[in-house]
Write a structure and sequence with these properties.
Blueprint lengths: L5 H20 L6 E6 L4 H8 L1 H7 L4 E6 L3 H10 L4 E2 L4 H8 L46
Parallel strand pairs: 1-2, 1-3
């Protein structure tokens, strides 16, 4: 069973309050907020616990969760208005803003420094970062 730490619980409460106060200043016609997420991180926890739904239901606002495979398309959707809020890692919003995306940071968490990984096939001669020298590495443009 999932048991949130104090840090996670505080982040969820802060996020809920932020969205709740944002909704209070929104137009009266707001009935739904669209939140972009990936299959990792605090949004998944908030979704499962229905934290944001609970905070907004009193105001008649429903939550629509929109899943993205990576941060780059999430930031693009945020910039075009396809979603209202989202959560992603460091690089996508920075690259988006550098490209002119009109986005605002509502909150940020410090990186634990362990959010990136390189996967190789079993038996690969690549066993360290140094082994990548001279090799080609595939990444999503604008991502970490």
């Amino acid at each position: 069973m999932f048991r949130p730490t104090r840090r996670i619980a505080s982040a969820l409460i802060l996020g809920s309050l932020l969205l709740s106060s944002t909704a209070a200043f929104a137009q009266e016609t707001l009935t739904e907020i669209r939140i972009g997420f990936q299959k990792i991180g605090l949004p998944v926890v908030a979704q499962r616990l229905k934290t944001i739904e609970t905070a907004l239901e009193k105001q008649g606002i429903t939550v629509k969760w929109v899943e993205f495979p990576a941060g780059v398309p999430l930031v693009e959707a945020l910039n075009t208005g396809a979603i209202d809020a989202g959560n992603t890692a460091d690089a996508p919003p920075i690259v988006g803003q550098a490209g002119g995306a009109n986005i605002v940071y509502a909150a940020a968490m410090p990186s634990a420094g362990k959010g990136e990984a390189i996967f190789v096939k079993e038996g690969s001669p690549i066993q360290s970062i140094a082994d990548l020298k001279g090799k080609k590495v595939g990444v999503t443009k604008g991502s970490g």
